[in-house]
Amino acid sequence: MIAKLKKAIEKIEASKKPIKIISHFDTDGITSAAIFSRAMQRWNKKFSLQIVKGLEEEFIKSLPESHLLIFLDLASGSLDYLREKKTDVIILDHHEIMQEIPDNVLMINPLVEGHEPISGAALCYLFAKTLSDQNKDLASLAVIGMVGDSFEKDIGKTYDEIIKDSDTTVKKGLLLYPSTRSLDRALEWSSNPYIPGVTGSYKGVMELLRDANIQKKDGKFKALYELTEEEMSNLITAIMLRAANSNISDMIGNLYLIKFFNKLEDARELSALINACSRMDSPSICLGFCLGNKKAREEAQKVYIEYKQHLVSALKYVSETEKIAGKNYTIINAKDQIKDTIIGTVASIISHSPVYTQGTIIVALAYNEDKIKVSARIAGKEGRNVREVLTKVVVPMGGEVGGHPNAAGCLISKEQEHQFIEELRKVLDIELVKV
Fold first, then answer.
1. What are the tens digits of pLDDT across the range 242-252?
2. What is the CB neighbour count within 10 angstroms for residue 347?
3. In this structure, what DSSP letter does residue 223 have?
4. Same domain, 157 and 180
């Protein structure tokens, strides 16, 4: 894959055209854009950057053929449209490829190269590091992208090197973030994991910490990462007693602590903050935050608070609204009650809830102007390929699907709302019979 990255560097160096970079709007996409644009800046290359929610045919048609087009963390599912562009295209992406790679496209994708799975940000970091060792200071952004796209559970050789480059501290423990803040506050605001009787209740937090025999030190509670092994074990036991239906193994893993703005930060919390800004239609703020802008950091914190309020409201709506339920699937049609930019996050949180058994497919819909954003997730770690399920429904309707086997999404027109739900139910019911 390094040979392909070198080829991309040569192609950019040789190009006489202006450069246009298009990146995805989630945490992985934003950190990819931050890494790539900083590397380009240091390379003295002029470029324009655009952050997008997704790629549609009309958008791709509108892209200037007078430019060299570079896509980050997306475009592997849009190759048939890019084939028509009369210009060179470079793609750094890690999503599944469903179409033949055109001659005008240089595809750099770990799935094609037989490389271990890595996120878009890791791929962009490898590009930056191949370009110059000066870019090693961007490794922390690759760690945030790794966590943002849930690659932290299966660390291979590439991520081992990135973690070393970033000087990240890794500690085993409860996946409660931010692990760098006072434990009582982290527990009170915890939504993932949700702890019955504790989340949202300071009284419940105090009872939990008393049961875990964790006491204040110098007038305040330690942060999670500061706990001793015994304290961590006691805390996990106390939580298990309150969340009996949850899979405790999903709550335990590696904490990734990185230096950001000269302060020790939890990579999960930074990932959540970046994701929040984008989903609240402020990608430029979180991009500035990633690039070290102090004013952007202040703005990002404000947006993050507003996002959390939206999320709590959305989860309340989902818990109270009527759903379309079948054997091993649930369809939530939120219409205009939930922002289209957070419907995927809502679906993800629900998929980790003990309410749904492993293998349940959750499909959530939200209006996006004249379109509908569809997000599909699988509850637990095993089950049917939700990308394939959506593809069977959406492709015959003239649409496209992006994502992974356990998390996928698409856009449909509002006129197709009823048809989509009916066809989806048919596919889900037929698939169930096959199983």
1. 876 666 677 88
2. 25
3. B
4. no
Q: How far apart are CA 69 and CA 88, in angstroms?
A: 7
Query: For residue 199, what is the DSSP state?
Result: T
Rounded to whole angstroms, the Cα distance separating 165 from 186 reads 28
Same domain, yes or no, for 6 and 150? yes
Instruction: Say how many CA atoms lie within 13 Å of 275 toward its Cβ.
Output: 22
Same domain? 309 vs 335:
no
Three-state DSSP at 351 gives helix
**Count of the separate structural domains present in the chain:** 3
Average confidence (pLDDT) over 253-259: 91
More reliable by pLDDT, 349 or 10: 10
Q: Could you write out the three-class secondary structure of 91-134?
A: EECCCCCCCCCCCCEEEECHHHHCCCCCCHHHHHHHHHHHHCHH
With beta carbons less than 8 A apart as the criterion, state whether 88 and 65 touch: no
Please check whether residues 269 and 370 belong to one and the same domain.
no
pLDDT digits (tens, 9 = 90+) for 84-142: 999 999 999 999 887 899 999 999 999 998 889 999 999 999 999 999 999 999 999 99
- Checking if the pLDDT of 352 tops 80, the result is no
DSSP letter string over 141-181? Answer: HHHHHHHHTT-TTS--HHHHHHHHHHT-EEEEEE--S-TTS
Q: Are residues 124 and 195 in the same domain?
A: no
Q: Cα 15 vs. chain centroid, distance in angstroms?
A: 32
CA-based nearest residue to 39, from 178, 161, 172, 138? 138
Q: In the structure, what pLDDT confidence band is assigned to residue 431 with cuts at 50, 70 and 90?
A: low
pLDDT for the residue 249: 73
100 half-sphere exposure, CB direction, 13 A CA radius: 4
Beta strand pairing call for 105-108 and 329-333: unpaired
Q: How confident is the model at residue 253, as a pLDDT? A: 86
Element (H, E) at 371: strand 371-378
Which residues, including other chains, have CB under 8 Å from residue 69's CB and lie 6 or more apart?
A: 20, 22, 63, 82, 85, 87, 88, 89, 90
Quickly state the pLDDT bin for 77 (edges 50, 70, 90): confident
Q: Do 341 and 281 form a contact (C-beta atoms < 8 A)? A: yes
Check: pTM over 0.85? Answer yes or no: no
- The greatest distance separating any two alpha carbons of the chain, rounded to the nearest whole angstrom, comes to 67
Structural domain that includes position 422: 322-434
Asked if residues 333 and 222 have their Cβ atoms less than 8 Å apart, the reply is no
And the tokens for 324?
């379309």
Output the domain CATH number for residue 396: 3.10.310.40
